[in-house]
Amino acid sequence: MRSVPLAFLAVIAVGAAVLTLPVSRTGTDPDTVLTALFTSVSATCVTGLITVDTATYWTPFGQGVILALIQVGGFGIMTLATLLALLVRRSIGLRGQLVAQSETHTLNLGDVRSVLFRVARIMVLFEAAAAAVLTARFWIAYDTNPATALWHGIFHAVSAFNNAGFALYSDNLISFAEDPWILVPICLAIIAGGLGFPVVIHLLQPGGLRFRDWTIHIRLTVYGTLLLLGVGVALFAAFEWNRHETLGPLSLTGKLIGSFAGSVFPRTAGFNSIDYGAAAPETLMVTNILMFIGGGSAGTAGGIKITTFLLLGFSIWNEIRGRDQVTVGHRSISASSQRQALSVALLGVAAVITGTLLLLMFTDYSLEKVLFESISAFGTVGMSTGITYNLPPSAEWVLMALMFTGRIGTVTVASALALSSRPRLYSLPEERPIIG
Hints:
Number of helices: 18
Shape: globular
Order of helices and strands: HHHHHHHHHHHHHHEEHHHH
Largest sheet: 2 strands, antiparallel
Strand order of the largest sheet: 1-2
Structural class: mainly alpha
Distance between the termini: 36 Å
Radius of gyration: 22 Å
Strand content: under 5%
């Protein structure tokens, strides 16, 4: 498990080194190394938090480096390395299969090869479809030359599917707040990437839409996604519909699209079609919750994941009802899955609390803004209330640590740093402490 975080660190280091080159930047900057490192971490961890304007600070070459880091980070460092080995050597060792299995969450060791190729095809398919629509729109509606339109279409499609949130416009996507031909394809790409590759692979198979054939994981992911999207749209519209700073001045179509985007983007995508620095406190709270939950497992989304959140909910519900077993859809959930869900959630809470406390120590910003920034970094979302540009170096290091932890997973971090565990050959006497 240690090879996964080490591989991410290696790619981050290479990306930062390339971004420090003069060919990557449009001007001079005394903090070039830190800026390059922060951007490399954000891109590789598919987060989207930035300390400089991507559209003006980086040259087309630098933007291309960022795009490559996003693609590599979204696909998974070890998955990509394994796929390249397959293409070159047509063979793979047991160790390589195990590493790829841990990254793609494949259940059967023999399925690793086919899964890797399916993942690659799915990424190309969705990114190409989104890029085609975006390119046509940029070219036709915004009087952009074909080459620039193509570049912007590809960049935003890759950034969307990988839930990265990097944009080539200084205001992110605010200038397209009423354009469904821009926001809807981006939102659909975000949802597709955030479902997780196991779910997408199953749904694209013949008969994959038959509900009776769905596993508990697929049901939790699909229905959880629909539930969170619906609740997010309703609450975002309720809190921002008539506010002059956000959705108020927009047309009915713009408000509907903005509400939909306001529910999709926090699911670890990081784009924004409104200024979150001007959003209502209620909206920021709902966004915090959506960012922390995140998307589906084994995909490009971050957060603690939908299945983790729902399994904890079912565990609480079954405990309230006095049931010994946790059941979902006429299936019992193993104790190990429950412990894993609890561990991921609590480690996530610990990471956010620690990051928030450190940011409060290093900055003068309010708890509301600092908490938003911490959850955004841990959930690899990339949203900000506008404070990222003005953070001191110490706070930037805190955000980098949160982004790295959130991308490779709290459980992966714990596994990589811990010694190899050994099964206990004896049982200790049982005791029940007072709870509550």
